[in-house]
Amino acid sequence: MIGRIAGVILHRAMDHVLIDVRGVGYIVHVSSRTAANLPPVGEACALYTELLVREDLLQLFGFPTLIEKEWHRLLTSVQGIGAKASLAILGTLGPEGVSRALALGDWNAIKAAPGVGPKLAQRVVMELKDKAPTVMAMGGTLTVDTAPSDALIETAPKPVKRPAPAATRQVNFTAEALSALTNLGYSPSDAATAVARASENPEATDTAKLIRTALRLLAPKD
Fold it and tell me: Distance (Å, rounded) from C-alpha 78 to C-alpha 81?
């Protein structure tokens, strides 16, 4: 099983990237969101990968974080969701958007992905809603380093250090807030729903504010 690819980008497209690993080029299929965030051609990158094996086909699918890879694995476990549909959902919503949509039971958000109809979107929500809190709690600390392993690429150019993407920081906030609420005694399902709703508030810009907003949503209504 190929679980990670680290190397130099030779070619980029909207749905795949060609990565050179010590002279061997690997075509890795990615979501449009991942493709847009990859470094330019000639720079180093690394992606977690999932290998699809069929009788007449071998395909690699790449993800910038383990959370996104986990969502891909869960999405493709739903009948009717293949790798292409999974990447369409992740490309449209991102892993944090998928978590939010499932926690809120928002199948319309899932339906916004190209090729995903209403019945399929409802099935995704029904089958995966209870799994959203577990994946949300994984946090954003599992992001792949942008620098390739020296053991794999000895001549790779030194990558430019970039700040963590806003989406990654949001996943961190979400995981920390979810953990705090469950430690306070709220059920994972209630905590996930409150955090998902709270994350839509533009003022919830860090963990503390996200927790306070979620607690207001969880407070008993008079």
Answer: 6
41 lies in some domain: yes
Q: What is the pTM of this model?
A: 0.74
Q: Is residue 78 part of a domain?
A: yes
pLDDT tens digits, residue range 140-187?
Answer: 545 555 444 443 433 344 444 454 555 555 567 788 888 888 877 888
Rounded Cα distance between 55 and 172, Å, is 39
Complete DSSP assignment for 12-61:
E-SSEEEEEETTEEEEEE--HHHHHHSPPTTSEEEEEEEEEEETTEEEEE
Q: Which domain holds residue 200?
A: 166-217
How many domains are there within the chain?
A: 3
Structural domain includes residue 154: no
